[in-house]
Specification:
By secondary structure, the chain is α+β, with helices and mostly antiparallel strands. The strands form three sheets. Strands 1, 2, 3, 4, 5, 6, 7, 10, 11, 13 and 16 form an eleven-stranded mixed beta sheet that branches. A five-stranded mixed beta sheet has the order 8-18-17-14-15, with no helix packed on it. The protein is 27% helix and 27% strand. The protein starts with a helix and ends in a 6-residue tail after the last helix. Helix 5 crosses helix 6.
Amino acid sequence: MTPLDILPRDYPSASLLGRVFDPALGGPCLVQLRHDRLVDVTAAGPTVSALLEHADPIAAIAAIPDARAFALAEIIADSLAHRADRPHLLAPCDLQAVKACGVTFARSMLERVIEERAKGDYREAAAIRDKVSVAIGGALGDVKAGSAAAARVKQVLIEGGYWSQYLEVGIGPDAEVFTKAPVLSSVGLGAEIGVLRASSWNNPEPELVLAVNSRGAVRGATLGNDVNLRDIEGRSALLLGKAKDNNASCALGPFIRLFDAGFGIEDVRGLELELTVTGRDDNYVLRGSSSMREISRDPLDLVAQSLGRHHQYPDGMVLFLGTLFAPTQDRDHPGQGFTHKPGDVVEIAAGRLGRLVNVVTYSDEAPPWQFGIGALMRNLAARGLLAG
């Protein structure tokens, strides 16, 4: 892939912020795309979290000269080639909490209901998918979550024996908000993403991710993969942590597109996400899409339900907004649906955010997570970036 395959289609006018791990420094640098180079703007931070607290992050970055930079083409090539010994892209967040909202699209909500009723058995899921679809009809797609109409739909579903905890958060007043991954554990462009060996039914979840500062102000957006183990979550909602949070199970990037006069929350509301999964050994190709126009809750409502007087995040958060995509396409045998295989190449793209590319492996084979908060603080201190 070339930089043009990775960058937003209108990248010359985009304010793109990223993180590069520089082996020469033993730690990360904040970078901004300027022409064909990624300029080190760490002096404006020194963390993404701190930078997004600025009254004007773009102005703070612009004040940093082009004294130190990386060649964009080399960084992308080395990131996609898993060259840990070379400067490569990291997830474009650092000290922020990694939060996620689930069941925010009617279509994926239906799949969650099926998973719950099937208790993780794909054969059972195939058998009841039509039954649930008939019972619910097309009404849920037109119902505003938390409204009086939603309350009436809830009663109908209870009477029909189809009520579910997933439908509760899908059309009820309260959104599902959970912690996707520990701080600094997310991976970036080109990195391997992990699934548990114990899972035989899993899938990518292409999502839009908002970068939010400690005051609840949305500063930008990026792409994310909320890797999900469908069979484990389907067995019990109490296994959500096991289904969602594993080594290398959260990917973000390639860059945060900062909000400016040319890109803001209205553009986020209209984004279209495209997913492609390409099998390494079986030539299998899965394609899907997710439109933010079909989300059941407004992105700013999800931010407000996640952060406010009721819950603070002093270092800000990145917030996954959920996915419309729930794959039912068979991969190996009729009725078995889709599941990942090692070597799958997963691409998540949106025209104005770029393309996030990762390769599937087992979590116990992905590079171990070793660079945590303590390591970051020691590295920044040694570089003299924490003074003041």
